[in-house]
Write a structure and sequence with these properties.
By secondary structure, the chain is α+β, with helices and mostly antiparallel strands. The chain has 2 domains: 7-189, 2-Layer Sandwich (Ribosomal Protein S5, domain 2), CATH 3.30.230; 195-337, Alpha-Beta Plaits (2-Layer Sandwich), CATH 3.30.70. The chain has 8 helices and 15 strands. The protein has helices spanning 76-95, 123-138, 145-155, 211-221, 223-245, 249-268, 279-295, 319-330, and strands at residues 7-14, 16-20, 25-27, 32-33, 37-41, 48-56, 63-66, 69-71, 106-113, 167-170, 183-187, 195-201, 300-304, 310-315, 335-337. A 5-stranded mixed beta sheet has the order 1-6-9-7-8. Helix 1 packs antiparallel against helix 3. It is globular and about 65 Å long. The chain starts with 6 loop residues before the first strand and ends in a 12-residue tail after the last strand. Bound molecules: ligand 2P0. Ligand 2P0 binds next to helix 4. Pathway: Isoprenoid biosynthesis; isopentenyl diphosphate biosynthesis via mevalonate pathway; isopentenyl diphosphate from (R)-mevalonate: step 3/3. InterPro entries: GHMP_kinase_C_sf, Mev_decarb, Mev_diP_decarb, MVD-like_N, Mvd1_C, Ribosomal_Su5_D2-typ_SF, Ribsml_uS5_D2-typ_fold_subgr. It catalyses: (R)-5-diphosphomevalonate + ATP = isopentenyl diphosphate + ADP + phosphate + CO2. This is Diphosphomevalonate decarboxylase. Belongs to the diphosphomevalonate decarboxylase family.
Length: 349
Amino acid sequence: MADPNVHRSSTFAPVNIAVIKYWGKRDTALNLPTNSSLSVTLSQDDLRTHTTASCSPKFTKDELVLNDEDQDISGARTQACLRELRGLRKEVEAKDGSVPKLSGMALKIVSENNFPTAAGLASSAAGFAALVRAIADLYTLPSSPAELSRIARQGSGSACRSLFGGYVAWKMGTEKDGSDSAAYEVAPASHWPDMRALILVASAEKKDVSSTVGMQATVKTSELFNHRAEHIVPARMTAMEECIKDRDFATFADLTMKDSNNFHATCLDTSPPVFYMNDTSRAAVRVCEAINTRAGKAICAYTFDAGPNAVVYYIAENEGQVAGILKSILGGKMGWNSLQGRAVQAAEM
Ligand code: 2P0
């Protein structure tokens, strides 16, 4: 029988893949970015973190278990999330004396990813989003998704975009305390239901340079980076929101590919340079460019995060021309993943 002293809540959070990239922090303690960013959420039916948070007067210390392995949660970022959530629970307890004093109990958090953690598929985004939402549900916090995204941001920047579904922007904000640096929904997944994403796995190995380290090296040493943050991204954010609202795939694709290339250019402009894409990644770029040239318009859009794997967006009606050709040309070189989704659905390869 379940122990009545144990309070428990479970939730899922999805993976998101940015089409306007976050890269660079203006405040490393609060995880405040140097530019806004925008992502597409992959369906959590297929790519997601499942997290259960529980607390009990019998638990002796906070614990986090990810994919059956104990994790170190002493880091400032996880601690910031726990501190904020406990603070909000204390407010609930102060208002209503009859609710149990959960804020004083140790937490046990158990998480599982249904995708390889090391495959460069934004596992920290889904991970921190699920952790924050599971604890917020356990504590029955009245917080909005925007408020929870502000908390998740402190765990990992990109996590703030995984508190929503569909098309999500993270506004960089201007306040020093980060109070206005949170995510908002640009459009729900249902707005553009025939959007698809295919994930091409060029390597499932852990990356050499973590995002956190790589982006701060770029901030420190790349002049191109300043131009990106100040001039390129602000205009692109506006254009990207508009083309999503208009379901204008050709513009969406153009902006997505340009922004991926611009982000990787700032990595290359870092001293010493940071290489995330490899020969296989570049082969995927060439094939996508050839598909678009043959179609006479952009019908697929590649994007690469801090790793060599490609995510290719396309519209369902072009499945054969995009996924079929990518498979026939690159099939021997890349792992193929049949990640399905509603907002975003991958081809069966
Ligand atoms: C993004 N990436 O917008 C960009 C594109 C990678 C390339 O967000 O230090 O793991 O935890 O805030 O969120 C990866 O950075 O970095 C990332 P932290 P995070 O998705």
